Amino acid sequence: MAKRLYALGRWAAHRRYRVLTMWVLLLALAAGLGTALGGKATTEFSVPGVESQQAQDLLKEKFPQAAGGTARVVFAAPEGAKLSGDKERRAILATLRGVAAVPGVINVSDPAQTGAVSEDGTIGYADALFGKPANSVPQSAKDRLDDALEPAKKAGLEVELGGTVSTPPAEVGGPAEVVGVVVAFVVLALALSSLVAAGLPLLTALVGVGVGVLTVQFLSRFIDMTNTATVLALMIGLAVGIDYALFIVSRHREQLADSKQDVHDSIARATATAGSAVTFAGVTVIIALAALATTGIPFLTVMGLAAAGTVLLAVLVALTLVPALLGFLGERLRPKSARPGASSPRTQMSGRERKPGSWGLAWGRLMTRFPIPVLVVSVLGLLALALPATGLRLGLPSNETQPATSTQHKSYELLTKGFGPGFNATLVVVVDGTHIPTARRETVVEQVADTVGKDPDIATVAPPRATEDGAITVLGVVPKAGPDDQKTTDLVHRLRDHAVTPVTDAGGTAYVAGATAAGIDVSAKLSSALPLFVTIIVVLALLLLMLAFRSILVPLKAVLGFLLSIAAGIGAVVWVFQDGHLTGLFQVAAAAPIACFVPVLLIGVLFGLAMDYEVFLVSRMREHFHHHRDARAAVEHGVERSGRVVTAAALIMAAVFGGFIFNHDPTVKTIGFALTVGVLIDAFVVRLTIVPAVLSLLGRHAWALPRWLDRAVPNVDIEGDSLPPRITDDRTAPVAAEPVRAGKD
Fold this sequence. Notes:
Strand content: 5-15%
Structural class: alpha+beta
Distance between the termini: 26 Å
Mean pLDDT: 83
């Protein structure tokens, strides 16, 4: 591998104009397709095959009036007044007329006629039903809906919007995300000791993520894709793009510290050695994200593939565009102490640029000198962080988790105040009586309504609505508990087991659906898929790391450390977002169950990122041991040489991910927090602390491989043994940065 990457890096440096032109054209093409022909992302998380989705599909086909998007307009009377007052009543009617005139609305209920008013008469709601799914309602209609609320607002009423149509899409590009990129640049400048070198990883990462995200935007025209998929692709692509470029640039500058090192040879050699680590790390991230397809959940599969595609672009950028730009910069990236004429004794003796990582050497020696205390403290600390994960509860994001200042959150609170917590957990019982004799359908529906109404955890059962032929009937059911309460989950299972018996006995089919039931179904589906997914990840790690390091114990250690990172990361997420600690600091609107797909995403993404640091750190250890056969010195050398870069890479990742913690979307916020904490734990506690301690205890055994397995495993040559001898100034003059000339290649 190293030999091929050496040739690729040297070619890219020599053909830098051609490489740069190719990436500029690719970015322009993606920009044109993504902006002009881009599709529309959805806010719905559907899972084919589960009961709630089967019911939704049935309604779309045979009872579309009951399957369209809903906008719930919630009214609250001013203090001392009631909604039944003359002034308030006129304002509500004027508002409802405006809502009914919104394009796409086919029906609007009146709170006074439907009884949708609280007992004290201060809070009421009206449902506006659209003739198409919520995701298909255009923004122009949503804007008209907002304008229609003005009469009630002018009359002094509080008016808030809920329902499926009002769910806001995830957006990026706010101040927090920009701050994250600025912090990443500062870290790069400190790590590389050069503003020019610091700008290069940012530039190349933006090119790769631009091509990736814009392509994802274009593909959303043909594939159903949640808006979180684009955000995840941006988040992961930007972070790994910066890190991969950093690995190669830092290795290049380290080599250029030798004043005789030829620039183009250094570029090729950095691409071969650091590029091998980047390739292995990138492949693990790509496969881990693609493995999300094993969950059998389409929206999660698309999210994983979208992010995996962006990571693939980041690898290609690192192996081609980065060497090309290094070729443009030429001697500018050589440390000043190594440039011709920089022969000051003080400069030569300081060794600051020639021997980076002195603190890393001290840290590595500390880890190898006291490995057992280090392991005990680190493992116990991670287990303590992981403890809250034992109480993990999964669900789907509701309006309760939207920002406290949003109309969605306010409508949720008003409905809870006026009608009880269960009103936001409304269930839908769908009766398919197609195969039930017409004469019996009404009786069967009455039996179902009677059985459901007698359940002690049910507050009310709405009157049934049916198609014209009576074949499909819908009953709205309001539980007493909220959507995140375990009692509601138990109620859904109980209704599916017993309440629908009259329908099945008569030859029909009944479903328990609704947003709350959908969350329960998706969580159950993910829980059942998680063991297979984790197994694939673990086996993948063992095989790839065994291939990279020709060892059995190193992969086992890496997997155990990864599992510790995952447990601690999930524990931190539960402690903040589910248990409600530090909610003010992270602007969490309400403590609630974790979005059901966050743990799976965290496992897939963090696995790949953890292997980034594992490969880059341990490959330097393996390289030193391969050449000197001193196990302890290899550990210290690896931390000395790679500790600074791994630290910078982790801080950059944390800065990029951390910017998304303050995104308004609760799902993006949770994912950003989970990845930030996970990366920091894995990099600083596992890779830079536990890994050196364990390897120092294992000694030479860490690098052992049975002979029969050694013969069977191909040699990928991460160490670069197959590379040609280094080219120095004695053979080839240093290549200075050349002025850009038209047509030069």
